[in-house]
Amino acid sequence: MTITDDFQNEIREKVSAALKDMGSEGIDFVVESSTMEGVDMAVPCFPLAKALRNAPQAIADDLASRIQPAGLIAKVASVNGFLNFNIDPEALIKSTLDEIIRCGPCYGSMPKSGIRYNVEHTSTNPTGPIHVGRARNPIIGDTLARCLKRCGHDVTTEYYVNDVGKQVVVLTWGVNNVSDEEAAKNSEEHMKEIGQNEKERDKTDHRLVAKYRVANKLMESDPAVQEEISDMMRRFEQGDKEVIDTVRHTAEIMLDGLRETLGQINVVLDRYTWESQYIADGSAKAIVEKLKASKYAGQTDDGAWYVDLKDFGVQGKNTKFTFTRSDGTTLYTTRDLAYHQDKFTRADRLIDVLGEDQKLGSKQLCSALEIMGFDKLPDALFYAFVSLPEGKMSTRKGVVVYLDDLIDEAVARAYEEIKKRREGMSEEKMMEIAKVVGVAAVRFNIIRVQPEKQFVFKWEDALNFDGNSGPYLQYVHARACTMLKKAGEFEHDTDASKFVEPSEINLIKILSKYEEVLRMAGDEKKVHMLPAYGHELASAFNQYYAAVSILNSNDKRNARLTLVECAKTVLADVLDCLGMGAPEEM
RNA sequence: GGGCUCGUGGCUUAGCCAGGAUAUAGCGCUGGCCUUCUAAGCCAGACGCCUCGGGUUCGAAUCCCGACGGGCCCGCCA
Length: 586
Fold this sequence. Notes:
Layout: H1 3-21, E1 32-33, E2 41-44, H2 48-52, H3 56-66, E3 73-79, E4 82-87, H4 89-103, E5 116-120, H5 132-150, E6 154-161, H6 166-177, H7 180-193, H8 204-221, H9 223-237, H10 241-264, E7 271-274, H11 277-280, H12 283-292, E8 297-299, E9 305-308, E10 320-322, H13 332-346, E11 349-355, H14 359-371, E12 379-383, E13 386-388, E14 391-392, H15 403-421, H16 427-447, E15 455-456, H17 459-462, H18 470-487, H19 502-512, H20 514-522, H21 529-547, H22 557-577
Parallel strand pairs: 5-6, 5-11, 6-7, 11-12, 13-15
Antiparallel strand pairs: 1-2, 2-4, 3-4, 8-9, 9-10, 13-14
Helix pairs in contact: 4-19, 5-20, 6-8, 6-9, 6-10, 7-8, 8-9, 8-10, 12-13, 13-14, 15-16, 18-21, 18-22, 19-21, 19-22, 21-22
The structure holds one RNA strand of 78 nucleotides.
């Protein structure tokens, strides 16, 4: 419950009472935050016109005359058919600042809900390094998880590792049969193809993917290799423990590389769940039996089982959702059902962060769970694909930017900036800050765009450190920190009468909105609201900073420093929620 | 062929779900501001038939219908 909620409730009560006075009890109306400058909340009176048989302006005038400013309502006015309200600035200022001082980093966070959330994200196939197209997934997923925690939920993040299927088998064959020399040669060609002169980096995922590329080529050109891989596939399907373990082991090595990359951008997952587990423990088979027993189940002439989902809103020429092959073995989707069943034993609500290509699959999954009698279904957050200006990202066509390269480039760029402006700073310190700043630029650039919008990756934008960017927010944090350091000890002063500058009142109003933003970003899954808020906050701080001399302000010094500290506290939490560091200098 | 989704200044983008007053911000552009708390900054300015056409409404960027343009999907793949 924020002060804005209280304010809104007071307006609601007053307007209801006034309407009752006017003999129109119980009429519905809305209280909305106003876009007009100098107005906080408004009740549009146009919808009331019909019921009251009067002009909107007249109604607003009438209502305004019946409502006296009291409590949080400082001013009531009738303008153009709107009933406008202003919040008591003193109450807003005092309660906001006191609350931030009282809560510290937890300001804006909501009380424990007791709800267990499971956020599955990233889950890329362990067959190659993460490229910027895939990077949207961990960044959205990790940010959402951080927001949900602040909404009071218990959140677990999870990566579903696909260690079953042809791709990982091919990878495994490559790792065991392709020589280092062959891989190195392929690596060189590949780097030339994607237009880079450097050597492919010495990191497990990059090393292994070279062997995967070679294996794929050999499989196409050499029937003997094709046969070996098919044989492995057969043994895998039959449950040959040796093959299954080898494949899993390979996937684990690959995953080490991916985990390292994710760690670079501050994404750490709580749990890794292996797809092969659901074959081993028989739960995928149990799903098959359950679905077979349903009235929607059927079998093709070849013996493959499916459920028909035409009654579940699945459209198109093929409404059948197949869950076994004709030989009775399970499919990826069958295992995914077992996986979701498992997740529901560990969490109350599931969120899957998925590429938009998974939309139909996700719907089918939900329908199948419904058929099996699940009362709760997973929720999905879809994001549109990332492409490059030259077109769709594709490792095969050599149109690709690896996340590792993007991070390196951003950090190098940040290092240049620091070196330019901070003479005499130690090399070590500069590197440390560059890392934090570069990563922030990368994450911010991706999270700032609404997930459902298509995203064209541009180096120019990703390496932008100005304006609406991660480093911009960090810069403000650093500014606040150095100012507080220079100020030394001071007493908190939240006396509202000391805050009179428009820029400081604006800043405080923005601070007061943080909880609402977290609720939108978390519970409403609108993750992109958070970077927008961060920019708004940082921008307001910079305006304040430019307009008011803070350290030399006599009787207002403590009050202003208090505001700087409060802004710093909130901004630090915004940065943390975005998975970005909050440097004290830069 | 069918389904889903996006379309907002030169470029990127908020607002759309819960319709309201002058459509948000950034990049880029023009001009100004560092002997004063970090100029990764601040201030001022130019730039918009909110893709198009209908409809609903006192009122539409927002809701409905239709077109056009981009993306994604319609495997006994994962």
